[in-house]
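Ex. 9. Protein: Outer membrane protein assembly factor BamA.
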Amino acid sequence: MLAERRGGANVGGSKRSRVRATLLVTAAAACGLFFSQAMAQSYAFSNVVVEGNQLIDPATVVKVAGIAQGETVSDAALNDAVQRLTASGLFATVELVPSGSTLVIKVTENPTINVISFEGNKRLKDEDLEKVVKSESRRVYSAAQAEADAAAITEAYTQAGRLAARVEPRIINRGSNRVDLVFEIREGRVTEIERLSFTGNRAYSDRRLRQVLETKQAGLLRNIIQRDTYVADRIEFDKQLLTDFYRSRGYIDFQILSVAREFSRERDAFFLTFNVREGLQYKFNRITTVSEYEGVDAAAYADVVRIRSGATYSPVSIDTTISRMEAIALRQGINFMNIEPRITRNERNQTLDVTFALTKGPRVFVERIDIEGNATTLDRVIRRQFKTVEGDPFNPRAIREGAERTRALGYFETADVEARPGTAADQVIVDVNVEEKPTGSLTFGASYSVSDGVGFRIGLSEDNFLGRGQFVSLNLAAGADTRDSSFTFVEPALLGRDLKFRFTGFYSTSENDNSFYSTKRVGMSPSLEFPVSELGRFEVRYKISDDKVYKVSANSSSLLKADEARGSELTSALGYGYRYDTRIGGIDPNRSFSLRFDQDFAGVGGDIQSITSTGLATYQMKAFREEITLRAELEGGAVVTQGGDSRVIDRFSGNGKVRGFEPNGYGPRDLTVPNQDALGGNFFAAARVEAEFPLGLPEEYGITGGLFADIGSVWGLDNTLGGAIDDSMSLRSSIGVSVFWDTVLGPLRFNFSKALQKEDFDQEQNFDLTVSTQF
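Predicted structure tokens for Outer membrane protein assembly factor BamA:
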């Protein structure tokens, strides 16, 4: 403790006054009190002595105290020195004792931490907890820091869903002023979400809304699934997901009034209830475009509006339209245009009138873009996600879109983008702060199907190769009758443009896949892909491969034997592909359409001359308050040869095109030989429709049902052995039911099917189970 000394002040005089004695005594007492407070003792020390220190240098103690020799200090200054020494965390006790012209600083040092250990932890490993604590070995022990570390460990367990976790810091004296710091942990049980419910929802059921949230109810796999544990931060994310869900469906006044969190009596489960106010659903009515920018005609901007009157309101539709208009302004060289959507409500009929006003915004330029936090990723990989560069007019929307593209790369844990004032009034600086995460992966996979049996796969991939944003992967797969290996390299921005370069090398073999022959293919394929429209992409490619058919059974068709006799042949082909997918725009969350068309022209050298064309169109929609998902697919293909017969390795087998049949189970077949080989066909077509719906089970089980109906055919051969082989277009059709089980081990699908139309020689498959998972 600080030893204090007080000086007094004498009040009196040699002459006595004739006033009354009581007044004299009172005045003397008052004056004495005043002067004793006003004239507190001050010190000037010519020497400072430190006592009790063992490891800490005396000069360090004096420096922390902040008292210099010869400096005049007061009682308050001595008290401040005590506080500084205590706050340093180096000492258990501190006492300042003035002794004449010498100041004695008496300290008791805190012990040094010898070892930090954790006891009782099973769910969180030592290496994970070491990242949380701030105390360090061979540093001075601080009781306050140990308590803070215990709180940090408790918070780590809270984030892992164990709210009942308790952590106590203990010290073990090891002598020589050293201690071991031990954190005794009682992990407690996982705090699960036992029930997840909603109040105030009328448009969508609890079941549908639970599908939106990241948090899930505890189900059958409660010991494996991680999203059914209670994490407070995840609730805030769920609130945003729920808000986005409703507003994208026209409920512009949607609100989450509250989230009730009820802890179970056993303290091992939460009951969450989202109290919502849906409001009314609005639709678009009248859409207009006006120009308030002098010299700018609104007609060209009105032409890019794709919003239909009567369509459900969606913020994505507004944003997409603004982006299209900004692209026109960029092409016309018009800067600082601000496109303002002015929305007028018509509450009587629940519609919205939208006017896109072209106005002139402030003249603000981007001074520079600062990127921080990227230790591995090159600056240019992040910078190319922004269409804006230094010196361009500042467009807040373009900056936000660049931020979203940066996050979508998948290279970063966080990617925060903010704009701040620059060095001049008309300048802004864009700060991009990222936190990198591992982008490489080693995966082991397994699959199973009734027809192919068990298969295994191992893959090594890197999504951000050398920090350049390039993708590299090596995959090896083996099934009961197949072997596949491939190498892939992708440069997503060749020459700094939206031009994707892909190179693939492959080697594959198959043996007796419901047939009596084997195949081998080895080759490579480089390609370039680029956008041709907002939702469409185009690819040009070259493919070269060495292919052969071998090990043909003696009891097989003469067509297969002819393919074997040809030996290895080189296929050299130029091709192109077009992809159109409305999911890229994401305007309508309940409907999507995709189209794929490919053509490959073999004959650019090599031994094969043919044209192979394939196409696939898919439409999907959610109906009945989004409870039921409807899908429809139309697929077809053709191989046209020149100067020779097609090979079985190039023809279509129809595998998976019409359910209810085995692989190679339908299509042209040589019935004149004992093996009755399936030969495939030069043409195929198939149509499939499917409905997926809930079965009434708790949705946390991840089990839904489905109905499907397929129709299609495989037909056409260049050589029918004089008409001995029936290669006509005979339709096959089937119906069936499906059970989908979305497990953490992988999606399972059980198909029970029945062929309605078939040929006598077709091979049916009434049940199929597919499993796919990776670790």
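Check your answer against this statement. The mean pLDDT is 86.
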